[in-house]
């Protein structure tokens, strides 16, 4: 197979071990050892969650940093990416679980206010299209914090702003979106997520994702009641569109930030990987590739449902390109992989079965795996 000379690496991060940029670097080293003659192009990807801004910056977007309100109210530094009027924002940078101290959770009070501040900074920087990547949030506030930062009001029966977080939403009596930043009306906001859950109920934001944010059963009930109250109050304020949006795919993403974006920002929901591939020019890069290498830390059944490698494989398959994957842990069989358009997967687990050691030595192991991949596939 030595005729294959051009390789496109479009892999996501190995969570807890390597960023998407580092994955591409180590794969490049391994491929080069086996085949120094290869033409290799790296296009790190993400699905809207953490790593999305970094993937855009790796593709030439300009990185902007801004100090905003973190999920617990303390200041944090968040980055967004900007190129030619298109801003890439990752809500996890301002309101993500990774910003919480170890073993600290605040399921009822964590806020998305900082996410709204990042959006405002992007507007200030001249953004006309905003790609809002949501995922990895510490919050379940229905996006109310984000909208407050942009000028909306959420008031209790005394006419005071309800406190931050999803818990206090049960006290919500009125909402006023008329004060939202006027520039939002002139901007296209795309809600990019790999999650298509509705806002409330057994498949909603609180029930499905609350536990990973530290919510126990009672907390989940409180949060779901708060989100239900939010929908009712917004329906009185803006009409039935608020009720319909709660059932829309992606409304439950990132603790309901999806809902806040759909109702308050007029956002359009799209699968995160699909949007990011467009933003980084994947289709153009694909044209000259003989082989595409995708992957992520854990290649499992979830991967095949809308995560980055599935999106890459789907786009590559439609273009008639061969796709293989690299991963830390492989949790699906060959037929499932082939069904997703991935010819073969190479896992670090095949060299190092101890997960902790595999994660600690992910870089060198990935180089070994890439070397084997090159020998067998190229």
Layout of helices and strands, plus pairs?
Elements lengths: L5 E4 L10 H15 L4 E4 L9 H7 L3 E8 L5 E9 L2 E5 L1 H4 L17 H12 L4 E5 L10 H6 L3 E3 L18 E3 L11 E6 L11 H5 L7 H22 L2 H7 L9 H8 L3 E4 H8 L2 H6 L3 E9 L8 H11 L3 E9 L3 H6 L4 E4 L7 H6 L1 H16 L1
Parallel strand pairs: 1-2, 1-11, 5-6, 6-9, 9-10, 11-12, 12-13
Antiparallel strand pairs: 3-4, 4-5, 7-8
Short overview:
The protein is 37% helix and 19% strand. It has 378 residues and is of the alpha/beta class.
Structure description:
By secondary structure, this protein is α/β, with parallel strands linked by helices. It folds into 2 domains: 6-45 and 281-377, Glycerate kinase, domain 1 (Rossmann fold); 52-273, Glycerate kinase, domain 2 (Alpha-Beta Complex), CATH 3.90.1510. It is built from 15 helices and 13 strands. It has a 6-stranded mixed β-sheet with strand order 3-4-5-6-9-10, sandwiched between helices. The protein has a 5-stranded parallel β-sheet with strand order 2-1-11-12-13, sandwiched between helices. A hairpin with a 5-residue loop joins strand 3 (62-69) and strand 4 (75-83). Helix 1 crosses helix 15 (362-377), helix 7 packs antiparallel against helix 8 and helix 10 crosses helix 12 (308-318). The longest helix has 22 residues, at 217-238. The model has no long low-confidence stretch (mean pLDDT 95).
Radius of gyration: 21 Å
Portion in helices: 25-40%
Number of domains: 2
Distance, first to last CA: 5 Å
What is the level-2 CATH architecture name of the largest domain?
A: Alpha-Beta Complex
Can you tell me the overall shape?
elongated
Q: Bin the strand percentage.
A: 15-25%
Order of helices and strands: EHEHEEEHHEHEEEHHHHEHHEHEHEHH
Number of helical runs?
15
Keywords: Kinase, Transferase
Organism: Streptomyces oceani
GO molecular function, one term: glycerate kinase activity
Family: Belongs to the glycerate kinase type-1 family.
């Amino acid at each position: 197979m030595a005729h294959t000379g051009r390789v496109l690496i479009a892999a996501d991060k190995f969570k807890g071990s390597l960023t998407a940029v580092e994955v591409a670097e180590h794969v490049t080293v391994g491929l080069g050892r086996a085949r120094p003659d290869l033409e290799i192009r790296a296009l790190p990807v993400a699905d809207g969650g953490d790593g999305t801004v970094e993937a855009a910056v790796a593709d030439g977007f300009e990185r902007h940093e801004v100090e905003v309100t973190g999920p617990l109210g303390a200041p944090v530094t968040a980055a967004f990416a900007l190129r030619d009027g298109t801003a890439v924002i990752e809500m996890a940078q301002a309101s993500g679980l990774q910003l919480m101290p170890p073993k600290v959770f605040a399921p009822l009070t964590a806020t998305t206010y900082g996410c709204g501040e990042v959006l405002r900074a992007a507007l200030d920087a001249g953004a006309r299209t905003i790609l809002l990547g949501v995922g990895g949030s510490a919050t379940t506030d229905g996006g109310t914090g984000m909208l407050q930062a942009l000028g909306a009001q959420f008031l209790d029966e005394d006419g005071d702003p309800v406190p931050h977080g999803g818990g206090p939403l049960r006290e919500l009596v009125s909402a006023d979106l008329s004060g939202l930043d006027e520039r939002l009306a002139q901007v296209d906001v795309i809600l990019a997520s790999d999650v298509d859950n509705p806002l409330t109920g057994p498949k909603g934001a609180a029930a499905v994702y609350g536990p990973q944010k530290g919510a126990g059963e009672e907390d989940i009930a409180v949060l779901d009641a708060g989100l239900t109250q939010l929908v009712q109050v917004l329906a009185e304020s803006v009409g039935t569109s608020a009720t319909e949006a709660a059932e829309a795919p992606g409304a439950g993403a990132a603790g309901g930030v999806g809902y806040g974006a759909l109702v308050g920002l007029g956002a359009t929901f799209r699968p995160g990987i699909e949007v990011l591939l467009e933003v980084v020019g994947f289709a153009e890069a694909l044209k000259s590739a003989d082989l595409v290498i995708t992957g992520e830390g854990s290649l499992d059944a979830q991967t095949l449902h809308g995560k980055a490698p599935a999106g890459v494989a789907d786009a590559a398959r439609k273009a008639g390109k061969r796709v293989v994957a690299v991963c830390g842990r492989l949790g699906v069989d060959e037929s499932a992989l082939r069904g997703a358009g991935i010819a073969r997967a190479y896992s670090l687990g095949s060299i190092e079965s101890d997960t902790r050691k595999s994660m600690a030595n992910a870089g060198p192991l990935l180089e070994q795996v890439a070397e084997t991949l090159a020998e067998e596939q190229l």
